[in-house]
Amino acid sequence: MRETINNLRISAFRDADDDPRAAIGAFASGIDAVLRTAWERRMGPHPGAACLVALGGYGRAELFPHSDVDILVLHAPAADGKAIAALVRDFWDMGLLLGCVVRTPAECRRILGEDLATDIALWESRCLAGSPRLFESQVREAVASRFSRHRNSYRHELLAALHDGLFSAASAIFRIEPDVKNGPCCLRDCQRMLWLSRLSSPAGAATSAARPSTMDEQARFTRAYGELSRLRCALHLVAGRRLDTLEIALQPEVARRAGRDGPGALMEGFFKSVRDVNRLLQGFVEREGRRDILGSLRARAGSMRIGDDLWLIDGVIGPASSAAVPAMTPETVLRIYAASLDYQALPSTRLRDAMRRAVEGFTLDMVCTRPAAEAFREILASPRHAGPVVRHMHETGALGMMVPEFAALTCKVEYDAYHEFTIDEHCIMALQAFEALAADADSAVRACRRRIVRAGLLRASILLHDIGKAAPGDHTISGATIAAAVCRRLGFTEEETGRIAWLVQRHLDLANLALRREPEEPALARFAETIIDAECLDMLYLLTIVDIRSVGSKTWTAWKGMQLAKVYQRTAALIKCPHPKPAAGAAGVDLFSPDHARAFEDDAASVHRSSDLVIRIQSGPGFEELIMIAMDRPRLFADIVACISSEGYNILSARITTRSDDRILDVFHVESDGTTTVSPEERARNIAGKWDLLCRGAVAAETLIAQRRARYPAGARRETGAAGVSVIIDNSASDGCSVLEIEAPDRFGLLHRIAQTLGRFEVNIVSARILTRIDRAVDVFYITDGKGCKIDGAEKQQAITRLLQEALEGLA
């Protein structure tokens, strides 16, 4: 039977690329026949006391390659219980992803109203076999009756779900790894719109009002629904199981299976589909929200005239219901968005559609007028939150009207294992993140935001910071050139244009210095020399924060915030006092002073001891600081890393200092991998215990890593197809050390393998910065040879590079 079902799947979806809806229906029909055969074998052709019912998606004859087959065995109390039990066993033995329940009509009636998903599943049911009379009686007397009596409550619940999906801050539709079933504006939202259409029809029949209102909307809906269905079919077939998240690693094969020219074309098609669904849903929710009497009364009573041709109605800007839409010019479009900003209200669907159609016909000459440029600059400079308005300007094309270069970023995917969103979505999310800084949890960030007087310049910089990614080459350099041209066209002064272009070109500098490099005094001094003035430093700091926060859901951490703040504060001090006295040890790396270590060695209440190792742990905001002192010996750093990693810590940074008494001071910043709830104090004790075992030779460091991986496999990052190891040694980036930069697929035990390999060359690790970008590790090490000098000589550099590549490429 499993082979039969697999053959059905292969046959149904052989031509799914051409017509996915037909393939889905064909597969459902094939499963219908299989289930009917099993039913008749156990129950006979005319059982009057039971029937087999398809539920939910299967009930509406939508069965994707590896979807659940949800069925109900509906039976009267007098039905043959043994035959039904044998039937259910047969169903489970078929190898289907089965959701099978057995209930009487009375039991079905009792559960109605408890859960929306269950009610909808019964509402969309159809009879496959058995007694049609029993099925029709159940649907007519129980399900249809309830939906008729509680129509408004179902409508309100579905509208709330759609509204939350459309307007929630967490509901970004332009994710690079989207959920094609349950993601915002994907298949589930399409189905919610169909359910609402059915509820709003006079009879609530399945065939009534099952599409958006106009012919154009129906065509767009059908096209988008078909494209999303095609993607889900291809994803199931490629994964060989039910999987609804379109992971980056699978996108090339899904693209081939869906008949698309590579992953870029695949995702572009997806984003266009969800954008169409988003527009349809906005209009649909707006219309449905005013269908009831209360909504109509509120709209009439709560309206306010805000211009000759515009009204504010229930938080929406639009023409009066009987009035014509204003004649659209670029100035009119910007006037509408200025009103939207002033009243913190969105244009109505009718107005947005009119603006979208008008914008498509505007030429650059029509847009490049002084009034239009002034109006756009005023939106950017507003003291109100401009982020949501700019987002809707992008949605209607009004942003692309003013900045055609930004339109080139629309739905553009950046495959760098770092960005979770399309480039245009990332920029607009960064703009919205900027609006939130006034209420940031960090008082220093709030104070910095208050110092920004020319917010329009910073908003323009945020909006344009990745504008160069539509052009070849270094996007910071090309972006600065493009940004300067845009700003001149928009009427910014030369001083303002230069400041914005500088921020665009330098928007990665602060993050690179704080997170990817050790901020040595000479490097900080060189960085400070590039800063125009204190205002520019403030703007760069805030731009860096919102850039990182809007890259992905987990890219911002308290540790990154602390590192950025330290470099920002030290740079600000250098700008105020450009010629400070040289700090002690300024030629090398500015590390934790060894003298500070003695302050806690004798404090028995706060340290953990093991053999020759002393550990102190201090909690920070979102991370811990581990300070360790041990006698220097070969492989010391690699062994300490093994102990720390095997306790479920992700290492963020490390600083290593050799003391005058030949002991090593290591300062680690670490964070828990989240697999356990062990307290920091207990982890420190466990690390001390493992160190004892290592020193006695009772266990090897590699064994500690292997044991952790075996016990907590979820703590090891998943394979996503990311490949390739890059190893670079740079002797120019630091005055006292060679800088070793390694980029590799992130794997559990990676840092230990690196330290172990470097130990073979008698290389000293002075400090390390560990950065993870989704599934890629970017680790930077400041290293010296046995004499404390840089790693000179091409032959030794090549040997280190080669051995590291071999060791890391073989890491499972």
Helix share, percent = 40-55%
Judged by helices, strands and strand pairing, the structural class is alpha+beta
Could you tell me the strand content as a percent range? 5-15%
Report the count of strand segments: 17
Number of domains: 4
**Shape annotation:** globular
Unreliable spans are 204-210, 293-297, 582-605, 717-722
- Largest sheet geometry: 9 strands, antiparallel
- Biggest sheet strand order reads 9-10-11-13-12-16-17-15-14
Please give the alpha-carbon distance between the first and last residues: 38 Å
Contiguous helical run count = 35
Gyration radius over CA: 32 Å
Average pLDDT figure: 85
Topology, element by element:
Layout: H1 2-12, H2 20-43, E1 50-54, H3 56-59, E2 69-75, H4 81-93, E3 98-103, H5 105-111, H6 116-123, E4 126-130, H7 132-149, H8 151-167, H9 187-200, H10 215-239, H11 251-257, H12 262-288, H13 293-301, E5 304-305, E6 311-313, E7 316-318, H14 330-343, E8 346-347, H15 349-361, H16 364-367, H17 370-381, H18 387-396, H19 398-402, H20 404-407, H21 423-435, H22 443-451, H23 455-464, H24 475-489, H25 494-505, H26 509-516, H27 521-530, H28 534-549, H29 558-576, H30 598-601, E9 607-610, E10 613-619, E11 624-631, H31 636-645, E12 649-658, E13 663-672, H32 680-696, H33 701-711, E14 726-730, E15 738-745, H34 750-759, E16 764-773, E17 776-784, H35 794-809
Parallel strand pairs: 2-3, 7-8
Antiparallel strand pairs: 1-2, 1-4, 5-6, 6-7, 9-10, 10-11, 11-13, 12-13, 12-16, 14-15, 15-17, 16-17
